[in-house]
Amino acid sequence: MTDVSFISSGHNVADARLHRLVRACRRRGLAVEVLALGDSSDGPQGARVRTWGRPTMRARGLLALRIARAASGRVVVAPDPDTLLAAWLLNHARPVGRAARIVADVHENYTDLLRDRSWAGGPIGSAARAVPRGAAAVARRADLTMVVDDHIEPLHARERVVVRNDPDLDLIGLPGPQSTHPKAVYVGDTRSSRGLFEMIEVIARSPSWTLDIVGELAAADRDGLAEALTRPELRGRVHVHGRRTPARTWDLVRDAWIGFALLHDTPAFRDAVPSKLFEYLALGIVPVVTDLPRQRALLTEVGSGFVVGRPGRDTVEEAVELLAAIAADPGVLEESRAHALRWRERIERAGTAYELAAERIEALVNR
Fold it and tell me: Rg for the chain (alpha carbons), in Å?
């Protein structure tokens, strides 16, 4: 019998947060299935995994219903507005006693995020904007609501727990020795609003550096990236790996000197702390971020990293100057790296919220 079903019509089975939550549930002995997108071999170990291809935006709602209907767990965990709505609707159509417990995993402000998507205008965008509003109502009524940060809605729910994107240290592994040459990395959803083309320009103007990009590339930016990489000065210096499992991702980049998070100032990102920042820090990869409040606050708290694009300064210009200074004197990174690794030690002692999340999910299984 399946205890917990993780379902998604928008996330790949290689998603890092999904892996972290599944691992926490498995450590408590729960039987887990994952129904999501991608290649089943990229799914979390120890879970039964079933996958679908990525749907068109028009077909995503139907796929959400199909995936929700296929879920067999006593508890259903949904990170997307559409699968959350689908699970809720199907639950209310089931006979009394056969309904699953519903867990909303709200890890982004979806309404704000829609403003960052090229397809979110017109009729499709109007329909898409209605889905998060309905899902927000469901999230308030779910048996358990997990949010990635205090400011993420709903602020009030039946049972609400903050599950921050702290790194799973066993999953990402140990810090490695740094590359013998200056190496930058970017991990995660790859698109223009996350600083893709700023990173490319910075590397183009920093001839001693290489850049590894690991993550799913937005369809709207594929042609632009392909064109940018034809520049002679970038030949052999930018490596685009595509999406990888969390473990494989960090094996590719753990020797990096710095990690980029050059997010644009959008409603979705202004109050965000990308999970990659926690993972960079845990591996001693020094973050280089744009001047957004939450990113800046995290780096100040840890005492590690650099902020570029400050008021009156151009992001690319400031980052190019920073990379030139680091290449000339790698010792510039020593203090930041040391503080990052001390932060990792504190995280290791304190534990993460994933264990609390798994404990609450187990309680629902046994209810």
Answer: 21
